[in-house]
Write a sequence for this structure.
């Protein structure tokens, strides 16, 4: 009985299909490789993004014990000392800094502070009680529209120098708890209690009063 014969010669149609199979395999490999490269690139981007994020605690409000450091100028990042404060102004702009982690709380502009040294005899009674050797600290954010308070100029309504927001001309008298003396600001600047030790300034408590501009609505 004749055995069954198997045809081992490929038909023309099968021969034509072989290149297609090879091409499909190569395409799959190429797709997988590109996908792997894209994933690696994304992971690299994620690491870079995380590395650029603000440090933990940098957006928190000033904490008791934070040291005060310059927020601008040649001494940016350095502690503010008694020797840095000129009697009678101008004020120094500062950030609070966590002395344990060295994190500067500069991720929120609401944390910027004005520090000024005045004659204690010029301060009203309540402000004098809070001052440390005539040194006072206030929020640097205007209570009107949240602009930065940047100027130390003679008041439009008196003969003394005051804090002034140049956005809408609101003025604040630091001798009287930074109350509004001119302009549209609805309330005084928030005050920050201070402590002085070995010539260096630190935060002694939370802000007194609301920080920032009036909210719409």
């Amino acid at each position: 009985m004749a055995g069954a014969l198997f045809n081992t010669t490929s038909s023309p149609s099968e021969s034509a299909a072989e290149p297609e199979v090879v091409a499909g395999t190569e395409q799959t490999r190429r797709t997988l490789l590109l996908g792997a490269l894209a994933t690696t690139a994304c992971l690299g981007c994620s690491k870079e993004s995380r590395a650029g994020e603000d440090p933990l605690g940098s957006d928190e409000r000033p904490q008791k014990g934070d040291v005060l450091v310059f927020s601008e100028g040649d001494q940016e990042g350095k502690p503010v000392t008694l020797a840095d404060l000129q009697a009678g102004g101008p004020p120094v702009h500062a950030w609070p800094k966590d002395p344990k982690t060295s994190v500067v709380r500069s991720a929120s502009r609401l944390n910027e502070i004005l520090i000024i040294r005045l004659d204690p005899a010029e301060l009203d009674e309540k402000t004098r009680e809070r001052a440390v050797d005539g040194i006072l600290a206030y929020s640097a954010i205007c209570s009107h529209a949240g602009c930065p308070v940047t100027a130390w100029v003679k008041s439009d309504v008196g003969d003394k120098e005051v804090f002034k927001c140049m956005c809408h001309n609101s003025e604040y008298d630091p001798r009287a708890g930074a109350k509004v003396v001119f302009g549209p600001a609805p309330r005084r600047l928030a005050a920050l209690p201070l402590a002085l030790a070995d010539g260096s300034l630190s935060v002694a408590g939370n802000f007194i009063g609301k920080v920032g501009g009036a909210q719409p609505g």
The first strand starts at residue 67 and ends at 70.
